[in-house]
Design brief:
24% of the residues lie in helices and 30% in strands. It contains 7 helices and 15 strands. It has helices spanning 46-52, 62-73, 79-85, 100-108, 124-135, 138-141, 156-168, and strands at residues 11-15, 33-37, 55-59, 90-93, 112-115, 145-149, 173-177, 181-186, 191-195, 201-208, 214-220, 229-231, 238-242, 247-252, 256-262. The strands form 2 sheets. Strands 5-4-3-2-6-7-8-15-10-13 form a 10-stranded mixed sheet, with helices on both faces. The chain has a 5-stranded mixed sheet with strand order 1-9-14-11-12, with no helix packed on it. It binds adenosine-5'-triphosphate (ATP) and ligand VIB. The site of ligand VIB has 6 residues, from loops.
Length: 266
């Protein structure tokens, strides 16, 4: 008999356990993550994301959003004390959008201001993720989760640059967030298991390659599953799909983007 050794691909597990739930079981703590705040309106659940993050970085004009908008999102009575409570560890970027008084305020409160105005080759988000990449030891990279707020729903060139960052730093788990959905990259190096937090995400979802086509993608757990299917722009991509199980499994010969809707968490 002929024996063949087939090396099965490692599984990468994903869950959106960082999303605020009304009733979180005590045995399911929020995983630690780094938070990057971009220059778009803050999501409703920002105070809860902020409180559970272990590192908070504002990308340039993202600092204006914390300064201006955090008060409206909290139930605090006093704008000044709210401002004093939400201090980012780092403000990173080319500093062409942060207002002078905001920069002054946060530097006086101890934020590190990293002025990269000489670099007009990469976006502010790219600069933030580079810093996180650099400071994370190799063996911890695959575990670290980076949440990026305000990444979607604005200027399309910014959105494309934000998605490009997922590909540039594919050894980090980066989640792009808006009020309405999230996006993550599923690298082709792994099989993927997505554990759906159905009280806060779904049911609408999408799965598609950007850049390089897929000739073979298989899924379980969706209403319209793929079975060794081809996907590329200009042909079929899976959009307006529906999650039908607590676990979605994906395997592909191409890097894919996974997107899922977020429920109204007001
Ligand atoms: N409308 C938007 N849509 C999506 N992402 C955005 C948008 N505006 C800003 N961002 C994100 O926030 C980051 C910081 O924004 P900021 O406005 O400071 O950028 P910028 O360098 O001034 O950009 P530009 O000069 O192209 O307007 C950007 O790198 C980008 O990732
Ligand atoms: C081919 C090419 N296209 C656009 C830019 C401009 N650009 C890209 S990122 C960035 C910084 C934004 O904060 C700027 C100005 C470039 N350098 N190279």
């Amino acid at each position: 008999m002929l024996w063949r050794t087939v090396r099965s691909m490692d599984v990468m597990m994903h869950s959106s356990s960082f999303l605020p739930k009304l009733h979180r079981p005590a045995n399911r703590p929020v995983k630690n993550y780094a938070l990057v705040v971009l220059n778009q309106h803050l999501p409703r659940f920002m105070p809860r994301l902020w409180d559970h993050a272990n590192l908070r970085i504002c990308a340039d004009g993202g600092a204006n959003r914390i300064f201006d908008e955090m008060f409206q999102l909290t139930n605090d009575g006093d704008e000044k004390s709210t401002r004093n409570r939400y201090i980012p560890e780092i403000i990173e970027g080319d500093m062409d959008s942060i207002r002078p008084e905001v920069k002054l305020f946060y530097s006086s409160q101890g934020s590190k201001i990293s002025d990269k105005s000489h670099n007009q080759e990469t976006s502010d988000l790219h600069k933030c993720i580079s810093r996180i990449h650099h400071r994370t030891p190799e063996h911890e990279k695959h575990n670290l989760c980076v949440l990026v707020t305000g990444a979607l729903g604005g200027r399309f060139d910014h959105e494309a640059a934000n998605i490009n960052v997922l590909y540039l730093f594919s050894d980090l788990r980066i989640v792009l967030l808006s009020d309405d959905c999230l996006i993550r990259l599923l690298p082709k190096t792994h099989r993927h298991e997505l554990y759906i937090e159905s009280s806060v995400e779904g049911p609408h979802c999408g799965l598609f390659p950007v850049g390089a086509p897929s000739t073979n993608t298989t899924t379980t757990g969706l209403k319209w599953n793929l079975s060794e299917s081809k996907m590329r722009f200009g042909s079929m991509i899976s959009t307006s799909n529906i999650v039908q199980s607590e676990k979605v499994a994906v395997q592909s010969d191409a890097d894919l983007l996974w997107t899922i809707s977020l429920r109204n968490m007001a």
